[in-house]
Amino acid sequence: MGLFDALARRKPDPSVAEQMTAAYEAADRGDYERALAIWTPLAHSGVARAANNIGACFSEGLGVARDAKLAERWLTVAADGGDTVGQRNLAALYFKGDGVMQDNGRALELYRAAAEQGDAVAQDMLSWMLLEGEGIDSDPVAARRWAEAAAAQGVAASMTRLGMIFHNALGVERDAAQAVWWWQRGATRGDADAQAMLGAACHMGMGIARDALAAMTWLLRARNGGSALAPRFFDAARASLSPAEFIEAERRAALPLEPAS
Q1: Domain locations along the chain
Q2: What CA–CA distance (Å, rounded) separates 76 from 113?
Q3: Contact 182/216 with Cβ under 8 angstroms?
Q4: Residue 138 burial (10 A CB sphere; 0-12, 13-18, 19+)
Q5: Which of 106, 63, 114 is nearest to 88 (CA)?
Q6: Cα 175 versus chain centre, distance
Q7: Nearby residues of 150 by Cβ (< 8 Å), 6 or more positions away
Q8: What is the pTM of this model?
Q9: CA distances, 107 to each of 61, 112, 123, 135 (Å)
Q10: Using CA atoms, how far apart are residues 3 and 97, in angstroms rounded to an integer?
Q11: What homologous superfamily does CATH list for 1-117?
Q12: Which of 45, 119, 155, 188 sits between 20 and 30 A of 75, alpha carbons compared?
C-alpha cells in the first residue's frame, strides 16, 4: 500500500464537538480522569468551555483533589475566553469566597458579563445581587429587568422575585395582583417561596380572591419544599380550616403541579 493510500484510509482527527461529547459521556459515567484527559489539551488549545469544565472539577473535587486556586485559574481562562458558564462559575467562586478572596464586586461583573450573553442562571443571580447583595449599590429597576429576562427563560426564582418586587413596591408601584401573577408562575414551577407567598395571598385575599383551602394547599407545598416563609402563615391558615378541609388540602398538595396559564 502506497503513502497516498495510507493517508486516504487514515481517519480524520475527531472534531472539538466530538471530543467534548466523549468527555461529557465519560464524566456522566463518573470517569473524570478520562474526561480531564480530553478537556486538558482542548483547554490549552483555546476551548473555553473545556477550561471551565476543568475548573469545575477542581472546584468540586471531581477526579482531582479539590483545589480552589486551580479552580480559580482555570475558570479565569474560561471567563476571559467568553464562556458564559465559566463566567458564572467564577462569579460563584468569588461570591462564596470558598478558598479564594470573597469579592462581591468582581462576582457582580462576571454575572453581568454572562447575563449580557443570555445566561439565565447569571441573569437570575445578577437580579438578586442588585436587589439584596451586600456591598453592592441597590438598583431595583435593573434587578427587575434582569429578573424578567431570567423569568422569560423559565427561571422560577426570578418569577418569585418579581412577585416580591411588585409586593414591596421596589422601583415600581405596589401591585398586589401583579405580585400574585408572578407568584403563580413561580409556584407552579416548584419554587417553594413562591408557593408560600401565593398561599399567604390566598389566605389574606391579597391580589386574589380569598380561598382558605387553596391557601393551605400552597402552604403545605411550600413547607414540604423547605420554604422559610411558610411557617409565618401556616398556623393562621390552618386555624381557618375544619379537619376535613385540612385533609383535602393535604390531598391536593400531593397532586402534580399544573403550570399557570
Answers
A1: 1-117
A2: 13
A3: no
A4: middle
A5: 114
A6: 26
A7: 120, 121, 123, 124, 127, 157, 158
A8: 0.90
A9: 22, 8, 12, 11
A10: 57
A11: Tetratricopeptide repeat domain (1.25.40.10)
A12: 155
pLDDT of residue 8: 47
Class of residue 172 by CB neighbours under 10 A (exposed 0-12, middle 13-18, buried 19+): middle
Which residues fall within 8 angstroms of residue 261, CB to CB, at 6 or more apart?
A: none
Under the phi-then-psi rule, with left for phi > 0, alpha for psi from -120 to 50, and beta for the rest, what region is 100? beta
**What amino acid is encoded at 194 in this protein?**
A
Cell of 245: 378541609
Greater confidence (14 vs 60) lies with 60
pLDDT tens track for 202-253 = 999 999 999 999 999 999 999 999 999 999 999 999 999 999 999 999 999 9
Cα 208 to Cα 98: distance, rounded to the nearest angstrom: 43
Cell of 136: 453592592
Share of the chain above pLDDT 70, in %: 95
Other beta carbons within 10 angstroms of residue 162's beta carbon come to 27
String of DSSP letters for 95-161:
HHTSSS---HHHHHHHHHHHHHTT-HHHHHHHHHHHHH-TTS---HHHHHHHHHHHHHTT-HHHHHH
Residue type, 222: A
Distances (CA, A) of 52 to 45, 89, 126, 155: 13, 8, 20, 23
pLDDT digits (tens, 9 = 90+) for 166-201: 999 999 999 999 999 999 999 999 999 999 999 999
Nearest-CA neighbor of 117 among 48, 171, 69? Answer: 48
